[in-house]
Structure formats: structure tokens, C-alpha cells
């Protein structure tokens, strides 16, 4: 670490930091609090046309959040609050809400923060002409508009963009990573005299509550040194796959063919839905590599040099040992997809066939993305009878964002009215249980059967069929239902762990306190060819349907059904695990019954359990 000592530093400028907690008793959403905070903070900075502080306070605000769904909600509602249409143009029929804060002096309004006289003192007019220019920067947008006053952004604007005019950074909800948060609130290029604001808007629950109570860890965190795990087996296997693609792309047999590059040639068929000559030549090269000892020796030497590997055992592990070994998994999978035209279950172009995404089960789709995530394709209605728009998401995120009954704005990038949801075709908006046929959620040719799953009910263990969805189709909620975009839903999740018959036993230390606690310890790992299968599945969702016309909310319990019987949708992953088999202690029920405080606690715990697991 290179840093100056205290005596070498001069005190100059300042930084203002504010942790703002929303009031749950006010029944206003936290997003509304963030919007008001953004409007006020923007008007506590210099007016871009007439800066009065000579750069001390800046002229531009950044608003960060970690969820694209929230980004889209925040962006369009902020445009509306500033009196603009969804395309950014001025709405002459609607005044900016800040205009309400600039009327005649009123002591009661001032006490409750509903008047902003300071904004007028520093050059803001708070009239119909005082409308902030709001822009958005996320993975769905082209870039940064330098004329913007307020920029709503995701992590895409964390690093690499230096703007000396940023005088305020607002974070909606607690940041997921303190190092990322430091990147967000710090901007290179600022003057030393600048006094930037950092505002964090927090709810009263969960991580937000902890962040508010420990605000010093938020604004002055102690960060541990981080190192890139370049020697990690997980990372090396991804790098080995990249290197193998480089080796294939450098072969003369491939280079002599007209090709679109190895990245595209391993993503989708290139000749009108069929493999091109270059892709066929790639398949021939892979077959030669898998079958020819001479070619393997040449490739092994090249790979060791490319990755800087000097340990022969480590090299052989990358080539032959699971998981994702080059010779036994990566190359055979590439060959199968090239020869079968990306077929799965006899249907072409259904086996991870996506443009510019080669081998997603071996190579991450973007830097720092997770690997080997099952994915779900979300089909959204096209405009004017056009083909549906298809988007791929990690299956867990996709199922949560499009839980039955939830109104999502994950892909609402065009207007404030755009939104999507996923409900049964024969929907009845009334309280209570509602069946959701699995054919409505995912058609038969877009799903795959999984082994039956087990769930615990009040009557005991129940076996239900489970399916893996590959594609779902969301729709736009009908206008006549007058639904509020804050309608939400949460999936009813269940988990199941399926270990192989035998793991790798480990000896429990003797003459140790653990000997009386653990009866057996077993390890399950890919390296020993015995990982476990972890299954997560949802049997339905609990939806809170809200309306824009002040009607009472509806509580609907959607339940997946197949042939009028309960069913589930889920996914599975093969993961490493360790199992601890515990010895049950010998309970002395006589002494327990005599302990009145313990019995009272057990009674309360039992009551809470019954309430939380009640299906009514």
C-alpha cells in the first residue's frame, strides 16, 4: 500500500454525508423518499447556468441503486416529478413538484421540510422553468449524457467515468459492497476545494436497518486488502477454456476458412441456421485433438505456456479432472453442439444457443459474472405484431422478478406505463387460493421434467412433480384492471439436497469435545467425483395485488398445478458439500418440565412455528 503520512497532508475542503431513513409509519414508499431527496439535493448544488460557489459544490447528481427494476421505476418517476414525459421532453401540462416548495413563506410548511428557501438564495428559481434534466445510465443504455443534471445509474457508472462536476451521490438502499460504494461516491477530477454530498436512503428493515445503526462503517469503512485469485482452480478452468478457444482459432485449417471469429462460431450456427464451413472445420479440429496423441502433446505444451503453469499435476487436473475439464467436458460439449446444431432433446438450436455467448456453462457471459448458472428466457410481447423480445436471465433472478402476480419493470425501458407480469390465462382477481396450470406458465415444449420433489405439509411428506422451465412468456397487464405497478409477489420456495450414496468420510477427532457432538463427517466434491445435487423449487407464489383506484389490496395465493395436482418449477446445481451427522443429546424431560422459563420459551417458539407454517 502506498499512502501519505498525516504530516504530509493538508486540510482542505470537506465532505458531507447523510444517512436518511424512510418513515414506515408514513405509508410512503422508500422510492418516494429517494425521489424527494434527489430533487432537493440537486437544488442544494449550484445552478449549472449561474454557479455561485465557483465549483465548491458542483452541479450534477448521481443516483445509484443495485437493481435494474428499481432503476427503471426511479428513472421514469423522477422524470414525472420534474414535469417531463418519459422521453425527457417537457410536459407543459404538468409543473415540476419542486415548484410546490417555492411558494409564499409558511412557518408550518418550513417546519415539515415542504419549503426550500435556501434553493432560491443560491440561484434556483423553483418555478415552472426549473426542471432538472434527468438521464439514465445502465446496461440497457448507450452511455452518459454530459448535459444531465440528475443521472440515475447502476454499477456501470462506478469506475472509469470521471466527472469533476458531480457534487452529490445518492445511494438508494444499503450498498451491497462497501468497496463499490467508495468507488461510487468518489469522483476523480474534482477540485480540492469541493465539498461533495453523499446521501444514503435506507429503509427500516434488514440490511438497511443495520447500515443505519452502524453508519460509521458505511461512510468510513475499513476495507480488507483484496487479491485476484489467479491461482484459484475455478478461475484457472475458465482461463483454460479461453486459452483453448485461442488455440483453436489459431489453427491454419480454421483460418483458411471464411469465419466470423471463434467467439461467434461457438455461439450460434452461422449459415442460415446451420453450421458453416468454418464451424465444421472447428469440429474436425476438435475430433483430431481428442483422438490424436501427437496433437494432444502439442496442445498441452501450448496451454502450459499460455497459462504459465509449471506444475504437471496442475496441468493434468485442468485437462482431465472434473469439474469442467478441457478434454472430458469442454471439448466434447463444443463438439456435440457443432455436430448436432446445438440440439437438445432432438430440437435444434435449444442447447445454450445464444448470440455472442459462447459456451455459457464454461465461460462467463461478462467479466465477474457467475459461471454455470441455469438460465431462463423471458419472452416479452413485441410491438405492432412483431416477434416477441427475448431476454435471458439467471433462472433464480428470472423466477423471482417474474413471480406470478408481481409487476416487473426489469425490461421497462421506454415509458413509465410499460410493465410486465406473469399470471394464469383465466385470472380471477379475488382473495384466496388460485390455481396456476403449468401450461400457462411454461408450455410443454419449453420445459423439462425433473425428478419428483418432496415437500412438508401439515399432513406429512408429499411428493409432487417438478419441472425445469427454459422459457416463460410475460404479458402487459390490461389497462382496465387499473393495477398499481407496486403489486408484488414472493415465490414459495422449497429446497432438497440429494447426496450420492457414498461420500468421502473424515475422521472425527478423538479425545475432543466434538467427539460427543458429531457422529460422522463426510465430504462430497467434484474432485472426488461425488458432488451433491442441490435442488430449489417453487410451488407457487403469494401475491399482493394493488390497485390505482384506491380499491382494497388483494392477497392471492397462486399454486402451480399439473393435471389438477400440485406441481413445482425449479432448478438444480451440482455443488461441493460437507455433511455433519450429529448425536442427539439425551433430554431429561423431567428437568425440562420443571424449568418454567424454558417451557414458556418453548411454548412461544411452537406458537410462532405454527403461525409461520399455517397454510390458511
TrEMBL record:
Q: What are the Helicase C-terminal domain coordinates in residue numbering?
A: 70-234
Q: Where are the transmembrane segments?
A: none
Query: Which PROSITE patterns does this chain map to?
Result: HELICASE_CTER
Which UniProt key words apply to this protein? ATP-binding, Helicase, Hydrolase, Nucleotide-binding
Looking up InterPro entries in the UniProt record yields: Helicase_C-like, P-loop_NTPase
Matching entries from NCBIfam families are given as: DpdJ
The protein's name is: DEAD/DEAH box helicase
Q: Name one Pfam family in it.
A: Helicase_C
Single annotated GO MF: helicase activity
